[in-house]
Amino acid sequence: MNKVLIFAGTTEGRRLAERLSGASVQTAVCVATEYGETLLPRGETITHLTGRLDEKQMESLMAADGFSCVVDATHPYAVEVSANIRGAAEKNGLSYFRLLREETAGEYGGNTVFVDSVKAAAEYLKKTTGNILASTGSKELKEYTEIKDYRKRVFARVLSTEESVSASRRLGFEGRNLICMQGPFSEEMNYAIMKEYDIRYLVTKSSGKAGGFEEKLRAAEHAGAAVVIVGRPEERQGYSYEQILGLLEKMEILPSGAAEEDAPAEHGLQMKRREAVLVSIGTGAVSQMTDAAKNAFDKCDAVVGAERMLQALGTLQKPSFVSYKNEEMISWMEEHPEYRNIAVAFSGDLGFYSGAKKLQPLLEEKGYLVRCIPGMSSLIYFAAKLGISWDDAKLMSIHGRFENLIQSVRENRKVFALLGGKDGVGELCKELLHYGLSDVRLAVGEKLSYKEERIRRGTPETLLSEDFHSLAVAFIENPMAAGHVVTHGLEDDAFIRGKVPMTKCEIRAVSVSRMRLCRDSVIYDVGAGTGSVSVEAALQAGNGRVYAIEKNPEAAALLRENKRKFGVPNLEIIEGEAPEALETLPVPTHAFIGGSSGNLKPIVELLFRKNPGIRIVINAIALETVAEAVSLMKTYDTEDGEISQVMVSRAKKLGEHQLMMGQNPVYIVSFTGKEEI
């Protein structure tokens, strides 16, 4: 029989009883007083047991009713009662779960005194003057009677039960010095009482969030009262409210998934399904973390994240799992259903090159309620340190990924880049110098927000010889970027040519337009020659890749020179003959065939095998090549087929006159496969 016995002396205990009742789980709830019974939920599946029980009575109760488990939700200071419950459960062979009250968040503040017991608090207060608010309960009021003039100085706040009132009055607490109310209390109520009675000292136990501890502390600070905290007994191992629900589900007491459903809204209590909170810790130092992030970590049951993130959060004393891999993190979370609220720590901001982008949909597929808490990115922090704006900067990351940083620097006055690896700054400086960007200015920030933070400025040449930490970012300023040409159609004389054939600028302009390139296209240039088409394509597809296939060693050497001259690191030179040289390359989206060496058919066959939806542009001079290209268009299921003959005449100056000199006509054949990848 799936029946649960709860000893409910706290708000969490009553909350759990209501949750189980709402899920139609047979539940018996024990409370010590009739007043406590009035706070319990009602329902067909819930039974109330009122009165204090000793260990023998607890043993008899557990043996008689066939319970599956026992949940101890008594007050944290009820040490003897908890020991009896645990002992009775062990003798009956029942699972015993201690429900821990949630700890308060934040610091106590400076005007605070810690003591071991109420008796020690009274000893301390004997040496003070001013009114005292005793909120430690009626059972220990006797200790305060040792204080001189306690009948005037001490104001006792107790439960409004006949038992509490009678005990307090017998000790001499009467009239306005006896405040009978049921807590927990709001900050405003606590403050009003302290101001009304001119309280100088508040005595309280560390009763946790549910006990209104935070509200007491804030009210005391506002009222200018010192706080005497009776040190909480050393807590035994136990579980949070959310973890208890997970354990009951694992025992099949709660239906599978029931712990994730919303609880009844009576008494203002509501339960959310299992939650994953993606939290940005900011630039790294805890001092830069937002209050919302700190609160999320304080409230969670467990924390997951990379080692650097968890090191920054080491003082939380929460269960944790070190990993930055999505599959590992999710697997661990699934293996620990007792953790109902899990915080996943990320550096920087979730929306700026963060792993949260891929993790969030995976968690949502698993049924988690996902919340995101933003943080300060290194971009924002570094720009503020430098005193510059970043709204006109190109934002990039070359940490573990390829991005065409060189083209971005050529085209933008400001580039911000996340770097990565031990030699990240050095490799950046080498690349800038290699592609002729020696005049740009760099600002490099290391370990931003940490005490070891350092910011250095210079040129690629001056910074190349220095050592940098792997945790670095850079702002690159290029004042010459304003004149950068963004259209294709480079002049032929701009290329280093040698004696290698080259596709002329007019033919090249039409051919590149026919390719219909995108920023992230993957392009094969077969028979690349000097690389004029390769360079134009690489400049257009700045976030993509261009593979220039060339069998002539002299042409390959010219390709390397032009790659450096035009600053296109996304151009890769493949020395070899097509189609064999294409076999191991990544799947293309586009292909330009300027020279096939008689292998046009097998080249096109391989291209369509790799990507049936590829876009192909062919340049041909011989009619036989045109006929073969037309035949291939018919053989394969293509669309958007076009054949153009382009004849260009260029002016040549002869004396005082300009004569038009005709060049060889070129056929441009273009088509697209119908099936896309």
TrEMBL record:
A GO term for molecular function: protein methyltransferase activity
Gene Ontology annotations of biological process type: cobalamin biosynthetic process; methylation
Record's keyword terms, sorted: Cobalamin biosynthesis, Methyltransferase, Oxidoreductase, S-adenosyl-L-methionine, Transferase
Domain of life: Bacteria
Record pathway: Cofactor biosynthesis; adenosylcobalamin biosynthesis
UniProt-listed Enzyme Commission number(s): 1.3.1.54
Cited InterPro entries: 4pyrrol_Mease, 4pyrrol_Methylase_sf, 4pyrrole_Mease_sub1, 4pyrrole_Mease_sub2, CbiE, Cbl_synth_MTase_CbiT, Cobalamin_biosynth_MTase, Methyltranfer_dom
Ranges of residues in domain Methyltransferase: 522-584
Pfam families noted in UniProt: CbiJ (PF02571), Methyltransf_31 (PF13847), TP_methylase (PF00590)
The keyword Oxidoreductase is assigned to this record: yes
Enzyme class: oxidoreductase
Record-annotated Tetrapyrrole methylase domain positions: 277-462
NCBIfam families in the record: CbiE, CbiT, precor6x_red
Protein name: Precorrin-6A reductase
Source organism of this protein record: Lientehia hominis
Organism placement in taxonomy: Bacteria, Bacillati, Bacillota, Clostridia, Lachnospirales
Gene: cobK
